[in-house]
Amino acid sequence: MSVEQPAYATGVSLQDARELIVAVAAEHRLTTETVALETALHRVLAADIHAPFDVPGFANSAMDGFALRGADLPQSGERALQLIGQIFAGGDNVLSVGEGECVRITTGAPIPYGADTVVIKENVRVDGDRVWINAGEKPGGNTRPAGEDYRAGDLAFRTGTLLTAAQLGTLASFGCDRITVTRRIRAVLLTTGDELAAAGMPLGFGQIHNSNRFSLGGLLQTFGVDLLRHQHLRDDPTLLRAALQQAASDADIVLSSGGVSAGEADYLPGLLAEIGRIHLWKVRIKPGMPFLFGSIGQALIFSLPGNPVSGIATFLSLVRPALDTLLGINKSARKTWRARLQSAIQKRHSRTEFLRATLICDENGTLWAAPLAKQGSGMLRGVTEADVLLIVPEDMHDLAQGSVVEFLPLPGLI
C-alpha cells in the first residue's frame, strides 16, 4: 500500500526553503504610498530617484579663508592682494574678483566670479585691506565645484533602497519633502501553549513565562513591521482556527510560535491545511526544524517552533527574507557576513546548524567568531550574550580553527 505524499514541500534544505518562501512572497508584493520625508526613515523606495539638479548647485568654498585667482598666487616669497569685500554662506551679495584682488569667504559660500581658489585664513597675513599670501598654495585649492556630489540626472537611489539617515539627507538636498515608498507590513503575532504565563503573572506548576511575545514581537518591530496586536492562545483547535482566520483577514503576515511540530497538541499544521494552504513544513535546520510556512487568502503564515532560540533563528533565516521581498528591498542590499572560527567545530548531524557566537576583531583587523558553550534551543541566555548566529552548512561536519564561516548578525550588532 503506497503512502500518500503531501501536496507541499517537507524536510527541505535551508536554501530551498528560502527560495520557496521568497517566490511566494514575491506574489504578495505590497502597494505603495507617499509619505513626508521626516517619516521615511527605514522605509523602502518604490521608485528610482534621479538628481533633479546639480548638487551643489554652485561652486563653493570648502574652508574659511580668502577667494582669489589661482594665477595671482606667488611662485616664491609672498604677495599682497587687495581685499575688496566678503561673502558668507547664504549671503545674497554678488562679488567679482579681478587681478590682484581677493574676497574674505566662509565655508559653503559661493565662489565669487573670477575666483577659482581659496586660501585658508590660517595661511595668510592680514594688514588692513591687504592680504599677504605665501608661496606654496595650489591653484584651485579648497573649492568644491558645482555638481561635485551629484550631476543633474544622476541615478541616486534605485527602487528597493532601504532609506537610512544619510539617504534622507541626500533626498532633502534634492528638495524632496515627500517620497513614494512601499507601505508597511501589517502583522499579527500569535503565541500558543498552555504552559505559558504572561510576564508579571505568577507561575503555576510546569509553567514558564511567555518570552516569545517579546522576542518575536521585538524582531517584527526591529524590521519595520507594524505589529497590529499580540494574542496568546491555549492549545485549543477551535480557538486557534478562529484566531488564524481573524488574523489573516487583518494582516499581511501572521507570525505564530508553538504548536507546529507533530505532537498531540500541535494543531497548527492540520488547521493550516484545512483553512488555508501549506507551502512547506519542516526544514533541515537546527534549531527550528518544525518551521511551517503557508497562506490563508492573501496573508502569509509563518508558524515558528516554540523554543525561544528556534523562533529567533527561524525568524532571521526564513521570515526576514520574506519581509524584504514583500517590501521590494533590493537584493543587492543584502550583505553576506563572514568571520573565522576561533575554535574548531564538530557537527554530527546533517542539518544546517545555527550556533550562537560572539565576535572578536584582533589587532590585524581579522574578525573571529567564538561559539558559546551553551547552545540549547530553549536557552535565551545564549542569544542574549551572542553577537551572531553562525551558519554551519548541512554538508559540513568538521570545521577547523580559522575556517571561514557565514553568519547572521543578531539585532543590536549593527
From TrEMBL:
Pfam families: MoCF_biosynth (PF00994), MoeA_C (PF03454), MoeA_N (PF03453). GO terms for biological process: Mo-molybdopterin cofactor biosynthetic process. The keyword Metal-binding applies. GO terms for molecular function: metal ion binding; molybdopterin molybdotransferase activity. Residues 188-325 form the MoaB/Mog domain. SMART domains: MoCF_biosynth. Its cofactor is Mg(2+). It catalyses: adenylyl-molybdopterin + molybdate = Mo-molybdopterin + AMP + H(+). CDD domains: MoeA. Its EC number is 2.10.1.1. Keywords: Magnesium, Metal-binding, Molybdenum, Molybdenum cofactor biosynthesis, Transferase. The keyword Signal does not apply. It comes from the Bacteria. GO terms for cellular component: cytosol. Pathway: Cofactor biosynthesis; molybdopterin biosynthesis. Catalyzes the insertion of molybdate into adenylated molybdopterin with the concomitant release of AMP. Belongs to the MoeA family. This is Molybdopterin molybdenumtransferase. It comes from Pseudolysobacter antarcticus.
